[in-house]
Design brief:
Largest sheet: none
Shape: extended
Radius of gyration: 39 Å
Number of helices: 39
Number of domains: 4
Mean pLDDT: 80
Helix content: 55-70%
Strand content: under 5%
Low-confidence stretches: 107-119, 127-131, 695-700, 710-759
């Protein structure tokens, strides 16, 4: 008796000491190093089993029962490393003090007598704990998530499960945790007990439990342990837990299939077949087949209810970044989705188009995307409706579909004319007048009668222009080819929201094609310059035309560009070539295109080479002799006042295609020369002003589109590949003379690289 009393007294003192130690460690915020030193001493003087140690650290403290202290997980890592706690002890404490019990107890109170009998069979320790009304955490989800993942890592590393006993202990407690999560989530679904934040935290904790469960199912020691005959009760608990837990998961099929396979193949195959149960099931199946006739039941097809969500996703994906809207592909998608229901497809097309613009405004992306999306709604959708429901089409009329769709459009976001004058509203410029402009475009295409617009809108339309007429593509093309001054006005019409933009885009592309075919480079220069100056206009054009139709003629023209035999002036040639190339580069850099996407098939294409390596700086030994000659000529033309500047002689010897391949090396040479003192500020300024005095506006702008990427490429080059300048320069020579006539030891390049700067 004395020994028992002494042991009990020692246990009480150890528990009290550990309790004080945990409280002081938390209050003093001990770092892990100090904690490790102290806990060694405490455990040596007052050793306790892992279950009690883990319980002390994971139970709510008198001063805090809201959530676990953030210092506890690092402390548990130290304790695990020292062997004072293990995975089963941590899982038991997590289960004991989990916040999920607060929700899981509610349905348990209404269970029948069978459940009460099972509770009576539980051990005395669990009865005592229930009677004592254990204080549990109010929010333990984040701690459970962290510790579940930590134990998962230990399982993967082979530290958590070292023998069969540990494996069975972990299996038993994991089974209880699965039942706990299942019951808590079921209670939430029925009574909506949790807020969105709490529900998200619970789902994160459950996801961590799933990760641990998957790793345990793959552990060889655990699989071997649960397959033994003595683990029959553990297998039963695990199988029941998985059967209720897995259906509540919304995971990828691979995960749920793996858990279900573990339950049905490993757990179920370990139990001997119950012949009596098999006989009963066979008799029941025979009775059902003979009496009910299950094979004779006819299951009616459930009608598929179409929504505009799929169409919204399709259109949003087609319009994001580079517009890739193909009319035939869209109609095929709508035909498959709506199974020939043209009325529903037309209504959903209108509503989905309004939804795309509304969501862009909600995401504060109006400044970037609203112009394109608004143009799609007003200029493109009426054309699509005209193809779906042409005037005179028997059956459903376009006017009915438009009226039905606009009745579901939110007027708080797309206000009517009267609401736009309401000073109490904060109207958005991207959604104002959209309803009226859409109706006006539908009137233009003959989908709606003019006198019915007020009835559709519910009030008088203020934005309708009676003088507005539908454009003809052929007439616009003839006007532009006969008078190039009309091209600028036509480009400006790309910004309009009147329903005529489709014809304008098709006319501009046709003008491009015919000008390229006839080599009308003057009109091409005007058109390409105007389009390149308005990047948003490129998005609008792609709503109505495919990219290869635009760029293929331009690339063929650039690749086949030649000087005429009787060519007298070369500066206009550079300007015209630069304007066309500028438009190609505008498309390329705006949509991150490569040569194949543009439609260039030949690897010898000049445009492909300019796009692929026109921005890459190359050393002189990487250039051909012809490129070195061009580079030398341009250096003298820009910076040697005695050489005559950028004259026809220089341009005639260097075709524009070849020039754009030496732009990056030229830029690199200028930067290096200025950095090392071969060019001073005046020389650099004079060379740049020389270009502007020659009025090569498009040529300069096109070159800058290659210089900027070239500069970025140059910044990332290894500067240690440049040889340090040595020696001294003669004072009686100009900077350009020193730059061009330096010996190889004075130029910041190696060997033959210096030769390109000799006159």
């Amino acid at each position: 008796m004395d020994s028992r009393a002494a042991a009990a007294e020692g246990m009480r003192s150890a528990i009290e000491y550990w309790s004080q130690f945990v409280a002081r460690s938390i209050s003093h915020r001990l770092d892990t190093e100090k904690f490790e030193n102290y806990v060694r001493l405490v455990h040596d003087q007052h050793p306790l089993p892992p279950a009690l140690v883990a319980d002390f650290f994971l139970r709510p403290q008198p001063s805090n029962d809201n959530s676990l202290d953030p210092r506890i997980p690092p402390y548990l890592q130290v304790l695990t490393r020292l062997g004072y706690v293990d995975a089963p002890s941590i899982l038991k404490a997590l289960y004991k003090y989990s916040s999920l019990h607060a929700y899981a107890q509610q349905p348990n109170a209404n269970e029948g007598k069978d459940k009460e009998k099972e509770n009576e069979k539980s051990d005395d320790k669990e009865k005592d704990e229930k009677k004592q009304k254990i204080t549990r955490w109010k929010s333990s989800y984040w701690a459970e998530e962290v510790l579940f993942y930590g134990i998962t890592k230990s399982v993967v590393e082979g530290k958590a499960i070292r023998d069969s006993k540990t494996a069975l202990e972990m299996t038993r407690i994991i089974s209880k945790l699965m039942v706990l999560f299942t019951t808590a989530f079921a209670a939430d679904m029925i009574e909506q007990l949790h807020t969105t934040q709490v529900r998200d935290e619970m789902e994160s904790s459950r996801a961590a439990l799933v990760a641990l469960l998957l790793r345990m199912c793959e552990n060889d020691i655990l699989v071997g342990a649960v397959s033994k005959p003595i683990a029959k009760d553990v297998r039963k608990e695990m199988s029941a837990g998985l059967a209720s837990f897995v259906p509540t998961l919304q995971l990828v099929p691979q995960i749920t299939d793996k858990l279900e396979q573990f339950r049905t193949e490993i757990l179920a195959s370990s139990d001997p077949a119950d012949k009596k149960k098999q006989a009963t099931n066979a008799a029941m199946d025979e009775l059902l087949d003979s009496a009910v006739g299950l094979d004779n039941f006819v299951v009616a097809d459930i009608p598929i209810s179409n929504t505009r969500t799929g169409l919204y996703i399709y259109l949003n994906a087609a319009l994001i970044a580079r517009p890739l809207l193909d009319d035939h592909a869209l109609f095929s998608y709508m035909s498959n989705k709506y199974q020939g229901d043209i009325q529903s497809s037309a209504i959903d097309l209108i509503l989905a188009s309004f939804d795309i613009l509304a969501n862009a405004v909600f995401r504060n992306e109006g400044q970037k995307d609203a112009h394109l999306l608004r143009s799609f709604l007003i200029n493109k959708v009426p054309i699509l409706l005209y193809q779906l429901l042409p005037p005179g089409f028997p059956g459903t009329s376009a006017e009915f579909c438009i009226t039905e769709a606009l009745s579901h459009v939110d007027t708080s976001l797309f206000p009517t004319a009267s609401l736009m004058f309401d000073e109490s509203r904060n109207n958005n410029p991207y959604t104002e007048s959209v309803r009226e402009e859409f109706c006006a475009a539908c009137v233009l295409h003959g989908l709606v009668q003019r006198e019915h617009v007020e009835r559709i809108l519910g009030e008088i339309s203020l934005s309708y222009e009676p003088s507005l007429q539908k454009h003809s593509k052929d007439k616009l093309v003839q006007d532009c080819l006969s008078d190039t001054e009309k091209i600028q006005g036509l480009v400006r019409e790309l910004d309009k929201m009147d329903g005529n933009v489709g014809a304008v885009c098709q006319a501009l592309v046709e003008v491009l094609r015919q000008s390229c075919h006839n080599k009308e480079t003057m009109s091409l220069k005007v058109l390409c310059s105007q389009l390149a100056a308005k990047p948003q206009s490129l998005d609008v054009i792609l709503l109505f035309e495919k990219l290869p139709n635009i760029l293929e003629p331009l690339c063929q023209l650039l690749d086949n560009w030649r000087y005429e035999d009787d060519q007298e002036e070369y500066q206009p040639v550079y300007e015209e070539f630069g304007a066309v190339l500028l438009l190609v580069l505008a498309f390329t850099y705006r949509y991150n295109l490569n040569a194949v996407e543009i439609g260039i098939a030949s690897p010898d294409s000049w445009v492909a080479r300019i796009i692929g390596r026109g921005h890459i700086g190359r050393q002189c030994n990487e250039l051909t002799q012809r490129e070195n000659d061009h580079l030398n000529g341009w250096i003298h033309g820009l910076f040697d006042t005695e050489a005559g500047g950028l004259g026809d002689e220089l341009m005639s010897s260097c075709p524009p295609q070849e020039f754009y391949l030496v732009v990056a090396p030229l830029f690199q040479s200028i930067v290096v020369a200025y950095t090392h003192g071969y060019l001073n500020d005046e020389s650099l300024k004079g060379g740049i002003e020389c270009e502007y005095h020659c009025q090569l506006d498009d040529f300069i702008l096109t070159r800058q589109t290659l210089w900027i990427p070239s500069y970025c490429h140059l910044l990332f080059r290894r500067f240690d590949s440049w040889q340090t300048i040595s020696g001294s320069t003669k004072k009686n020579k100009s900077p350009l003379s020193r730059f061009c006539n330096s010996s190889s030891s004075q130029v910041p390049f190696r060997g033959k690289q210096a030769q390109c700067f000799h006159p």
